[in-house]
Structures are given as structure tokens and as C-alpha cells.
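Please, does this match?
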Amino acid sequence: MISIEAVRNRAAQLFPLLSEVRRHLHAHPELSFQEFETSEFLQKKLGEHQIPFQDGWVETGILAQIEGRNAGKHVALRGDMDALPIQELSEVSYASRNEGIMHACGHDVHSTCLLGAGILLNELKGFWDGKLSLVFQPGEEKLPGGASKMLQAGLFQNDAPDAIIALHVFPELEAGKIGFRPGMYMASTDELYFKVKGQGGHAAMPHQLRDPVFAAAQLVLALQQVSSRLGPPAVPTVLSIGSVHANGTTNVIPSEVNLSGTFRTMQEDWRKQAHQHIERIARETGAQCGVEIEVEIRKGYPMLENDPHVTSLARQAGVELLGEDSVADLALRMTAEDFAWFAQRFPACFYRLGTRADDGRFSAGVHTPQFDIDEQALITGVASLSWIALKLLKS
């Protein structure tokens, strides 16, 4: 029988390796679906620890699998590998060496924790039954998402896991703590693109034109009714326009304006209806303003829903490992995550790993140039993934 103390102690003993791996990955970030050096580095580490794996999943993805002493449950753990197109603003020794690319969302942490859990559980495979899969996933940050591509390529096609687990860095929570939420947790995400086409000209003579700038402004306002008036009040919904590009000047009205934004919600039926409303509002606004409005809705990740039973077991494991005071209950988030593709297919739990230091350091948010972590979180990440996996393998 494996004790909690054994898992805690081994995770702590692995810290020098975990820090080394994480810092290497952080210094050498690669964009979505371009994680070739990252994948090679992780494959090398898996080989060094005699963990069998298959590479080449969606080119850079890796599936490693560890067999326990006897047949039993199948539990999968997932970590993403890609970085973001952000210039790091940091003076640490392990700052990004790749211009304009940074691990600003903690995927270096996720891959490191997954590798560490694989090493720990491989060392203990003579003490547990079943099978453990380690999924090193590319392209979480870019539609359609590496999770969907790996599934389309046949991942787990004939060997569905009984549960799949992933963690994600959370600077709002102190290192040493983790957080869970059963059921509805994160929103779906769709990208919105609008092209407003009119007739430009001299700004002093708008009566002779079909002003796309005016129409674009009307469209931004009209679209707000999707979330404020048309959607079910009990369903979280966000529609935001983040980019408006009108290439005119003080006395020139352009002939075209381009807008882009995001639509997010937590109910798939309403999501489909909202797409229809968005297209209708654009069409009607264009007719009222005498312009043509083209709409493109790029459907992204589905909403992420944590399986209540799996999440309950995972939370119990977290409390056993860390104590009740170190396990938080999470609020709904309108951010999105392509792990939702796995959660649609298999019983899943996506939980949060605290990364902020007690003194407030490392509190910069994800997707910012200053993001970094208290590396003690690596120990908590490895220990929690390992203990959760063991609990689910025994359940």
C-alpha cells in the first residue's frame, strides 16, 4: 500500500529535477503546434526514467503509458506544452530566449508536473493496479485546440480512460493550495469577425457616403443585447468586441471597418441560438445604416464541465494530501480551455494549482509579460496529480 507520506516525500525529493525541467521549458518556449524542441526534451526525460511512450500525435504530442501490477482502471493525466506570442518582461535567469514568445500561461509548469507525476507513479507501479496515461498535448492556445486534434487522430479510440485529470496554474491562490469546482466551470469560446463595407469619402460630406464607421459603432452597441436581453438570465454569457479597425483619418471616412471579438457562454443550446442572433443583428444593422456587414463566427472550444463524481474523489484526495484549509472551492470562470474536448468525451476533472508566494510575489496574471510562479507549487502539482490518480485507480 502506498502512503500519503511516501507521495509527499518523493514529490519533494524530485524538486531539483522539477525546477530544472520547468526552467528549461520556460527558457525555450514554442508556439502552438510548433513544440518540436519541447517534445524532444520531454521524450528524452521520459526515456531517462524508463517510461514507455508514443510520439508523433499531431506531430508534437506524446502519449506515455504505465502499466500497474495487475489489470484495473485506466486513468489519464494531461499537460499542455505550447506558449504564447508575448514578449517576456523578466530578468530571471530562465527568462525566455525566444523573442516574442513566452510561457505566460504556465504550460511549462503543467508539462513539468505531468512528467513528475509520471516519474513518481512509474517508480511505484509495483504497488498499484490499472493503467496510467500521460498526455503531453500541443496547441491548447490555438483553435481548434490540440485536444480535439489528438482525439480526431484516434487518441483513446479503443481504450477510453475511466477518468482524465488536468491541472492549471492559478496565481490567485497561494502555492501549496489547489482548488476544485464540480459541474459547470469554464465557458465555451467563439471568435467573432465582422467586416462592415460601405462607401467612404470626405468626412465633411457624410450625406454623400454610406458610413461604415457609424454602422460599426451601432453594431457594437446592438450586439450587447445578446448577453443583456436575449440570453437566459441564469446562463452566464459574455460578448465583447476587442478590436475595431477603421483606416481613416480626421477628414476621411474609410470604405471598410473590421471588428473582432469573443462570445462565451455555458449552455450549448443557447450558444447555437446566440450565433443566429449575432448574424441577424449584423444583417439588420447593416440594412438600417445602408452598408453591408459580413459575419464570420469561428466556433471554438465547448464549455468545460467537471464530472461531479470524479471531481468529488479528486477533491477528497486533495484534502487527504494537503488538508481542508489548502483546498479551495472555485468560482465560475468565463475563460476557456480546450481540455473541454476531453471532458465532453470522458469523466473529467480540471483543477487549479496555486502558484502565488505567501508574500504576494508571483501574483501577475496569466497571459501577462510578468507571469511567473513560486516553484514550490511544482511539488504540490506533482503530489496532487499522483495522489488523485492513485485514488481514482482504486475507486
Q: What stands out?
A: Residues 22 and 58 are 23 Å apart (CA to CA). The two ends are 14 Å apart (CA to CA). The chain has two domains: 4-186+302-394, 190-299.
